Amino acid sequence: MKTTIIIIIDALGFELAEKHGFTPAGLPHRARLKTVLGFSQAALASIFTGLAPDEHSLWMMYSFTRDRSPFAWLAHLPHSVSARRLWLRRLMQWKLSHIDRVRGYYSLYDIPREVFPYLDLPARGDIFAPGGAGSAGTVLDALAEDRTPFLVWDYRIGEERAFSELEGAVRERRAVFYLLYTAGLDADLHRHGTSAPAIRTHLAWYQDRIERICAAAPSAAEANVLVFGDHGMCDVREHIDIASRVDRLGLAIPDDHVPFYDSTMARFKVVSPRARDALIGLFGAMPSGHMVSDIERKERGVAFPDGRFGDIIFLADPGVIILPSYMGNEPVSAMHGYDPDTGGMYSVLLSNSGLPAREMSIRDLAGLMLPGFVAERRRGSR
Asked: pTM for this one?
């Protein structure tokens, strides 16, 4: 196996790279990558497994459940106890770590206490470690099974340290497969937008560090270097308040429905017929977005017949965010999680060797990272 160096920069979009002239020396080959509908969890799982979200089952950070929520115990607390209480949040995190054995990334965000008992965390494993995708096999699973030496730097390691350690490891030939993932650009884009000088500066820093790593790597004939993003980003131009409109329908949680307000998607587990009729009526006439149809879910690879991620899903138009949402009450300058066919949502792939096409999918990346890798589900799902 050739030495393989993988650098994943969260939110490194194709249009963003073009706008700011992101062209690291030593990586002359470029392709535009279509992402999946959803956020980074769905995209990373598809990158590492080669599967669509409804095949690897890790679409959204939170799914709906009625009988196996790790937060079910919260229903027994007094209604006056808010999920914002620091002691309660620490207790929730302790339980998730020590009792439920959640090893992957999650956030409690600003989810209301009354909603938590009806939510589940589908991604219990660490996607940056073998076994991290549960029933779906990943590139890291295949490396571990073949006993291929590999090193990983993920979001828990600061950018400066991660790039420095990667460069040193490559120079000293400490492994055969190297993987670095960083979310620093994603955070800056949310804060500043796609055109800010801070973004150009950050990309220039990445370019310098990547060029140093390429220089430290074996020759192009002996090393495979891939740099890519998981999705792109769109500048925010509009906010819509969906929660207030749903509240005015007079629906009860959990007897009628359970809502989840993400930054670009409002998802609802429907319990009563009146809730279904009311929500369909509301979203059928709401501007700045649309209800995701069954046909669209199948086309986007997010069709879950059991409705675990929502029976009704409203998707905001590009550049529109739902505010307030469970992500918070403060506006941001740029966002992702829109229709994958939106221009700004495409990510970019850079390589030191030829690529099979100029237009690809993030689902094609597993086979490029590890030639011969076969995307598959290997065990029964949870």
From this structure: 0.95
